[in-house]
Structures are given as C-alpha cells and as structure tokens.
TrEMBL record, chain A:
It comes from Gulbenkiania mobilis. The keyword Transmembrane applies. PANTHER family: INNER MEMBRANE PROTEIN YGAZ (PTHR34979:SF1). The chain crosses the membrane at residues 20-38, 59-81, 140-160, 213-230. It comes from the Bacteria. This is 4-azaleucine resistance transporter AzlC. It is a multi-pass membrane protein. Its main location: membrane. InterPro entries: Brnchd-chn_aa_trnsp_permease.
TrEMBL record, chain B:
The chain crosses the membrane at residues 37-56, 87-104. This is Branched-subunit amino acid transport protein. InterPro entries: Brnchd-chn_aa_trnsp_AzlD. Pfam families: AzlD (PF05437). Keywords: Membrane, Transmembrane, Transmembrane helix.
Amino acid sequence: MSSLFNTRDCLAGARDTLPMLVGAAPFGVIFGTLAVGAGLPPWAAQAMSLLVYAGSSQFVAVSLVSAGTVLPVIWLTTFIINLRHALYSATLLPTARTWPLRWRAALAFWLTDETFAVVEHRFRTRGEAGAAAYQLGSSLAMYLNWQFFTLVGIVLGKAVPGLADWGLDFAMVATFTAIVAPQLRQRPALAAAATAGVLALLCRGWPYKLDLIVAVTGGMSAAMAVRYASRRSRT
Amino acid sequence: MTTFWMLAGMAVLTFLIRASFLVFGRGLRFPAWLHEALHYVPPAVLSALVVPMALAPRGTLDIGWDNAYLAGTLAAGLVALRSRHTLLAIVAGFVVYVLWRLVLAG
C-alpha cells in the first residue's frame, strides 16, 4: 500500500457508509433469491455480484434472463442502466487526479450509487485529505456487504425451491415500483415513466426484447422534451 | 457458456463506464444533454419493465379487478409515494398481491 492508505480514514469511510449497508442488505437477499429462482446457477448469481457489482442492472439482467433475452440486448441494457456511473467518475476525477493508476482503477471498479453519495459529501464538506483511504473504506464495506447478502439470498432461494413459483416474479415488480414511484413527483420523470410504460405495453413481445430498448429510448426522449418545453415557457 | 459471456460482457461494460473518467478520462468531456438525459434512465427502464407485467401478466391486456399483479403494483406504488420508504412499499405490495391471490383462489 502506498502512502495514500491510512486506517483512520478507511474506518471513517466504512462507518459513514453504515446506513447504506442496512439499506442495501435486503436488496442483496432479494437479488440472490430471484437470480436462482430465474434459473441462474448459484455460482453465476454470486459471480454477478462479485464481478458486475451494480445492483439495479443485476436485477434487470435477471428479469431479462427469465424472459429468454438474447445477449446483445442484455449487454445494451446493462450499458444504458449503468451509464450514470460515468457521471460519478467525472465528478470524482478532480480529487482523484493525482492518485496512482491502481488506486483509480480499483476505486472505479467499486464505484456505486451509495459509495458515490457518501464520498462526494465528504469531499465537498471536508476536503481532500485522506480522500483515497476514505473511499476505499466505503467501497470495501459496500462490496463485502453486497456479497454476503447475495449469498444469503442464494442459500434462501435454494433452500425453498418453490419460492420462485410462489410469486417471486411479483417481488421484482414490487421492488421496481417502490423504487420508481417517489421519482414521479417530477414532471420530466413522470413523462419518462409514462411514455416508457405505454410503449413497453404496446410493443410487448417484440423479438430480441427490442420493446425494452424502444420504450427506454422513447421515455428518455419524452423527459427531455418536457424539460426543454418547460425551460422555453419560463423565458 | 452463454451465462459466462453474459457475465463477462456485463462486467467489462460496467467497469469501462466507471473507469471512464477516473482511469482514461483526463481529456474526456461530458455533453450537457447526456448529463441531463441520464437522470431519466431509471424511471424509463423500471417503468418499461413494470407496466407490461402489471397490466398484462399473462401476455394479454388484463385490467380487471381479478388481476393480482395490478392490485399489488398499485399498492406498492401508493405506499412508496406516500411514505418514500422503499422496503415498506415492497412489503405492502407483496402482502396485497398474496392476499389478492388467496381471496381469488378461495
């Protein structure tokens, strides 16, 4: 370890991430259970958490697998869903600019919504001293937490084999709904959700799950249209 | 084998996105429109997945009162809007869904 590491900041990063760990835990369990329920081998479910390590795209991939989706569409969907991480990457660059490559690469691999939120807050309020060690602490805490609760979910899904027929597909619907509903108070987000929903319904069953791509593209265009329209009406 | 390639592709793409600026990106720039559009990826994707499953769980449009998926989805959505508590909303949606099915079966 280079001089960027120090135990105090590393522990502080892990400690400040604690609320995020509690929030992510049930989703880890639900992911593991759904993944084996959808027919993914247990090793693949755990490998997805270990190697991809991006909760929402993992959930969506599982639902695409159970719908028999072809690989290029799964990849494209993963790309679209995770593209927001580029924004985090750009935001952290000014602080990380002087760090050695292996630090930047490792912390990029572990960059999640949760770690970004915690780390960005600290950088903004407390400056850059100990920043790399702090981000490492947050990253490791989130990563180990996600692995552990994925495993719990996989074991649970295997122990209760009927769980999938028992309405687990609905657990996915309920999870997505609960995440998206509070965002619908904003008009562009509402336009995105409404347009994407209607398009997905109208185009359902299209080959290669192209309905999803059409719906998402349409939804994002609608949101942008609403934004531009409201901006113009204000000026 | 397909599973292996699915994981490999997802892992590589996700890492490249996260590494974009931190590893490669001293010269990269983020266009403003893309910055804005990215905020609306989650509502678009999640709604595109939820709506067909809630309104057409068996493939054909089903907006009758006997659609347990629709009842559970509405419950989860309402609780999430009111409480902003994700986990509570999931549990509420699931309870309504299970009760709906039990009542319909009974």
